[in-house]
Write a structure and sequence with these properties.
The protein folds into two domains: 69 residues, Orthogonal Bundle (434 Repressor (Amino-terminal Domain)), CATH 1.10.260.40; 108 residues, Jelly Rolls. It contains six helices and nine strands. The termini are far apart. Helix 2 crosses helix 3. The chain is of the alpha+beta class.
Length: 196
């Protein structure tokens, strides 16, 4: 076995154990959830049993994660450069993306639109934390002022918009799968169309 394969094998075993411990489950509890014997699970965690794909799929489900997340290798993109979204006048730092959630750091300089017709509404749920400056969250007809270190959570079916007040602000936005899809569709509709 190559060194890279051995490192991945060891990493996957450590993840299985760490996820089990984080859930507060004993070997017996996870083994029952994964329909494995307790001794088989112990040998998997300790490296005394070969990792089989069917067992990894079962363990990933039992641990409420995906197989991709269980076996992903450390990526080289630790340092993330900002993306400039000139259409919306924002700078974005994509931090984490997985099948269920997306975390995005954004720097905003413009206030949110006052016109409810320009607000977004789509399925999903969104959370945001203000990292610096002052953000304005428009929810329907409500105008909420959020200072640094304050957070908000809201269903995205409610018309909403976020912007800055009194200068730039940075927020950390967390979107569930539906909310992220809704924002991507909105961004696609607002992007300028190429000339034929």
């Amino acid at each position: 076995m190559k060194q890279e394969d051995e490192d991945l094998d060891s990493l996957v075993r450590k993840r299985i154990r760490a996820l089990r411990v984080a859930q507060g489950w004993s070997l017996e509890e996870l083994a029952a959830r994964a329909r494995l014997s307790q001794s088989s699970l112990s040998r998997i965690e300790n490296g005394r049993r070969r990792l089989a794909l069917d067992q990894l799929v079962t363990l990933a489900r039992a641990l409420d994660t995906s197989l991709d997340q269980l076996v992903e290798t450390a990526s080289d993109d630790v340092v993330i450069s900002p993306m400039i979204d000139s259409v919306h006048g924002v700078m974005r730092w994509p931090i984490k993306s997985d099948p269920g959630m997306t975390v995005m750091r954004r720097r905003m300089t413009e206030p949110p639109p006052d016109n409810p017709a320009r607000m977004r509404a789509h399925p999903g749920r969104e959370w945001l934390v203000v990292l610096s400056g002052t953000a304005i969250l428009m929810l329907g007809h409500r105008r909420l002022r959020l200072e640094a270190n304050q957070a908000a959570e809201f269903p995205t079916m409610m018309p909403h918009a976020i912007g800055a007040e009194g200068g730039p602000c940075e927020i950390l936005g967390i979107f569930d799968r539906d909310a992220r899809r809704g924002h991507q569709r909105d961004d696609d509709r607002e992007a300028p169309q190429a000339a034929p």
